[in-house]
Amino acid sequence: MYKIMLVDDEVWVRRSLKEQIRWNLLKAELVGEASDGESAYRMALELKPDVILTDIKMPLMNGIEFMERINADLPHLKIIVISGHAEFEWIRQAMVHRAVNYILKPIGEQDLNQSLSAAIRDIEKLRMEREEQILLKGALNQSLPALKEQYLNAMLTEQQVTSARFQRLMAQLNLRVECHAFHMAVVHIRHYDRLAEEKFEGDDQLLYYAIDNIIGMLRFDSISLLSFRSSAGKYEQILFIGYPPGTSPNACADYAVEAVGRVRSSLKSALNADTYAGIGKGYFQPEDIPNSFLEAAHALKYAKSGSGPETVFFNEIKKKEKDPKDDLVENVAAYIKENFKEQITLESVAQRFAVNASYLSRIFKSESGENFIDYVTRLRIEKASKLMLNPHLKTYEIAEIVGYENTNYFSKVFKKAVGFTPTEYRERFMEK
């Protein structure tokens, strides 16, 4: 999903933009809104959007100043200006600061979506070029198997793998894979170190090559099977099971069970390797690869617990246990509650929980109903409101306690949240 951020001091304009943008068609999501350039700058640094729609005339920091600052920090960002002013100087300044378009208000739905579509095409083209450069550079230093493992593991957290990008990457890695529908699966090799000792005198790298070759030799009539080792540990082999067009969901599920069964039986026959396996739900879009993988890992955990069969389909346990995405959001929310007083960001929290920041932003909003930054701000302001009742604490001290280094910025956020400045809030309380 492409991340879009809206910046305009008029609420009705932002609401209109949200209604006019064809989110699903553009494969885009709203990651944040701001009413002035200063807060937009801070928000953009944290959320790292792909496209920003911004007004020119705004309080605190106008759109031109905002563009100048944010371009220095996010050089690949695409900015579309939306303005009610047609003066040549404004347009010239916007173009100087790399605006990809300048749309006059009132904004037409067609112009808006065409501009966004053009910006997204530019982003896609740039990403493909960067991937190609990285692959070419990596080919000089690494073998193709190592590149395959590296890039396929990266897809497990990538939220913007379109069908075109997926097929392009497969071609560059010399892999033929169907992706009209797919399942992800994870196979755990039991007693891996002991197996390496028995079969290859303790050389676990040779064991890995043997496993990869055994799976690679399997042939199927109706599916594509892609296997690679998890970067999280040598004991787990990840499977991408792809299906051709027209395969029904029931047939896909049957093929997934068959493929995983043949992988497990082949490893048992060739290496006497005992295994567990988990299979995620079936999906149709490559951007859902992380979802299916997360579900497969959860199903594997269930299989290893001994409370079910050795191969577990996520669909079989989803009614008995919570979705793993729920656990992630709950754990993240609990972590924020404990640490909101620190200088935490979406990127730092995502890194702590070993997930992609865009993915975390999307599922946090989806599962909690609240943006990441809004949740952090709410916790901070709720705590600050309580601390305001302590007459011995200064406003700047309260700001620091709840995680704000800049007292003026804290006061603005506080007033926006509760309707009063810190001073007004205290005075009203004392009056009561």
Number of separate strands: 10
Mean pLDDT: 84
Query: What is the tally of helical segments?
Result: 20
Low-confidence stretches: none
Percent helix among the residues?
A: 55-70%
Could you outline the blueprint of secondary structure elements for this entry?
Layout: E1 2-7, H1 11-20, H2 23-26, E2 28-34, H3 37-47, E3 51-54, H4 63-73, E4 78-83, H5 88-96, E5 99-104, H6 109-141, H7 144-155, H8 163-172, E6 181-189, H9 192-200, H10 204-216, E7 224-229, E8 236-243, H11 249-271, E9 275-279, H12 289-304, E10 311-313, H13 314-317, H14 324-339, H15 346-352, H16 357-368, H17 372-387, H18 395-401, H19 407-418, H20 422-431
Parallel strand pairs: 1-2, 1-3, 3-4, 4-5, 9-10
Antiparallel strand pairs: 6-8, 6-9, 7-8
Helix pairs in contact: 3-4, 6-8, 9-10, 14-16, 17-19
Salient structural properties:
432 residues; alpha/beta; five-stranded parallel β-sheet; single chain
What does this structure look like?
- By secondary structure, the chain is an alpha/beta fold.
- 57% of the residues lie in helices and 14% in strands.
- The protein contains 20 helices and ten strands.
- Helix 5 links the parallel strand 4 (78-83) and strand 5.
- The longest helix is centred in the first third of the chain and has 33 residues, at 109-141.
Short description:
The protein is of the alpha/beta class. It is 57% helix and 14% strand. β9, α12 and β10 form a beta-alpha-beta unit.
